[in-house]
Amino acid sequence: MKMDKTTTRSTLSEAVFKNVGLSRNESANLVDSVFNEILVSLIQGNDVKISSFGTFVVRRKKERIGRNPKTGEEVPITARSVVTFRASNVLKSKVFAKNKIKNTE
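Below the sequence we write its predicted C-alpha cells.
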C-alpha cells in the first residue's frame, strides 16, 4: 500500500516547531537557512554530505550527441551540471526495514 503524502518545506518547519520549541517563524527560517546552505554549496560545485542520510553530488556531464526518440534525428546535448543524490547505507537500511515490516502486515 503506497501512501501519497509528500513532505514539504512547511511540513519540515512544522516538525521543527513541534520538536525543538522554536516559534513557527523561527522554525521556517531555520529550515530555509539549511536549504540555502545546501543550495550555495551545490552552486559552487561542492558535494553536500549529511551523515547517516546521504550525499548530494554535483556531476558535470560532457557535451554529447543525443537522438530524438520520435524522429531519430541526432541533436547535440550541451555540457551541463546535474545534481544527484546517493542515500547512505544507514538511510537505505532504515527504509528497507520499514518497508519489510509493512509488507509482512
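The chain has a mean pLDDT of 90.
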